[in-house]
Protein: DUF429 domain-containing protein
Organism: Pacificimonas flava
Amino acid sequence: MPPFDRYAAIDWSGAKGERHKGIAIAWCDANGGPPALLEPGRSWSRTDVLRWLRDLASASQRTLVGMDLGISLPYADCGAFFPGAAQSPGSAKALWALVDGICSGDPHLGAGTFVDHSDFAEFFRRHGGREGTRFRCDGAEHGRGRFRVTELRQQAMGCKPYSNFNLVGAAQVGKSSLTGMRVLHHLRGTLPVWPVDPAPRAGSAIVEIYTTIAAMAAGRRPGRAKMRRHEDIDAALQALGSPPLGREGPVDDHSADALVTAAWLRNAAAKPDNWTPQALTPSIARTEGWTFGVR
């Protein structure tokens, strides 16, 4: 894998509305130096991020972008994203197209129409105690819903993943994932998304990240992965071999996640094993995708 020139991490949000405090972008240079927030204090919209990603496709610098969301839904456990549904695509890219098509009228790249759709609602856990009859795996002992293979591997690493079909609570990842799929569909043909697309030999690319993995690599416990002070960020950066920011005081956890994960991505991208995890088969790459750094 040829080296990238820059590494960026996006802490994402699937919340309603146009602009979100929960979206933060940080980047760092391959040659060293501390990570930095891109336009700190800005309330990003998902459309803003889409434009920024499109610009990377034509930029001379090669950037590896990590997006903190699930790039697909579970498939391998049941042999389908939506077993028994009239519309159940056979690949991650077809899933992105389906979500974007059904949600074409949702403003700000939202995905509310998809989770309320009669063909798919029963697969999600939604607000108001509405757990769909198809939310859980058959025989599942936990209530966190269906997992992709990469999420099972995250669990083996000590993480506590939740299903991308979960739309409720602080641990929900479904809304972020579905809105992110709309962005990925709009980027088709401009930026490759590993491993749905092969690892690129040139140009920029996108990978799925899980910020808890970066925090664990920096010495944090999974249950204490969130950082809300600059002093904690600097300790994490030092553990990752990065220069510190050199600031003090509170910081929002979205910015902290992006900063630490950008520095981690710079290290992780240089490790060949992260590009060739043993459990990643061609079928899983095509359907479920993978979380970068999970082996």
Remarks:
- The first helix runs from residue 46 to 57.
